[in-house]
Write a structure and sequence with these properties.
Layout lengths: L5 H14 L6 H12 L2 H14 L4 H13 L3 H14 L2
């Protein structure tokens, strides 16, 4: 993904998901891939799933908030981003 090989990254993530659907950071990686493709609504869904595993992860909350804003879901992002601001003024 970082080298711009989005299709190859997607195939790798899907193969990994079949072998180990509970692999740590799989939802985060999927979200980043979707974000790279411009699918911010899909990325937000993946980041929410990642937050299920790491509910106190401020960086992940920020990433989700940013994806929600970019997807046009500002009201939904507002409370989450205010929470991030409290954690990291």
């Amino acid at each position: 993904r970082k080298r711009g090989e989005i299709d190859a990254a997607e195939k790798t993530i899907e193969r990994l998901a079949k072998v180990d659907p509970l692999f740590p950071s799989l939802p985060l990686e999927r979200g980043q891939l979707l974000e790279t493709r411009g699918d911010y609504a899909g990325a937000a869904t993946a980041y929410r799933k990642a937050l299920d595993d790491r509910p106190q992860d401020t960086d992940l909350k920020l990433r989700l908030g940013a994806a929600l804003v970019t997807a046009g879901r500002v009201d939904e992002a507002d409370s989450l981003l205010r929470e991030v601001l409290k954690e990291r003024p």
